[in-house]
Amino acid sequence: MDIKVEVKDEAVVNLLNRLKSRARDLTPAMRVIGEIVRSSVLKNFMAGGRPDRWTPTKVLSTYLSYTMRKTGSGSRRKAYTLRGGLTKGFERYAAGKKTLIDTGRLKNSITARAYSGRAVVGTNVIYAAIHQFGGMAGRGRKVRIPARPFLMVQDEDWPAIRQSLERHLFGGSER
């Protein structure tokens, strides 16, 4: 059984035609949505994980990432003084250390792309997957990396995403 509906109200017909036209290409809305999600991912990095905090980086990893870098003169940085205390440089480094942010390469690689029917947020950094999902890494796969999901849409993002779609479909331009 088919039901046929004929709309004779000109304003309703115009609205439906405008919706149909705008729904063909959602790229402008997807561009905004991609940036909403990208911004949320960057907030995940700055908060050290949302809604749950990530497992912190182990002290040994912090020590190694500091001492493996070279100074201006070409020698490796020192974490300990001759008396066995921590150097001021290492104390500053460790105090400002955030999980998943060492050089900032992963955080700064997050991109958003918009297409007609979707927004894609991601990274091309090869080690991103091991941090997102966790797993065994290193030589012989002996180091366990905990999952630290950074590519996440937060509950607080959905109203803005919904509003972006509504704005595109029912009015105001996203361009």
* Helix count, DSSP H or I runs of 4 or more residues: 7
Rg for CA atoms: 24 Å
How many distinct beta strands?
4
Structural class category: mainly alpha
State the domain count: 2
Can you offer a commentary on this structure?
- The structure is a single chain.
- This protein has 175 residues and is mainly alpha-helical.
- The chain has 2 domains: 107 residues; 39 residues, no CATH class.
- Helix content is 43%, strand content 8%.
- The protein contains 7 helices and 4 strands, in the order H-H-H-H-H-E-E-H-E-E-H.
- The strands form 2 sheets. It has a two-stranded antiparallel ribbon with strand order 1-2. It has a two-stranded antiparallel sheet with strand order 3-4.
- Helix 2 runs antiparallel to helix 7.
- It is elongated.
- The two termini are 43 Å apart.
- The model has no long low-confidence stretch (mean pLDDT 85).
Task: Provide a quick synopsis of the model.
With 175 residues, this protein is mainly alpha-helical. The chain has seven helices and four strands.
Provide the fold topology.
Blueprint: H1 10-24, H2 27-47, H3 59-67, H4 88-95, H5 105-108, E1 111-114, E2 119-122, H6 128-133, E3 135-137, E4 143-145, H7 158-170
Helix pairs in contact: 2-7
Primary descriptors:
175 residues, 2 domains, elongated, mainly alpha, two-stranded antiparallel sheet, two-stranded antiparallel ribbon
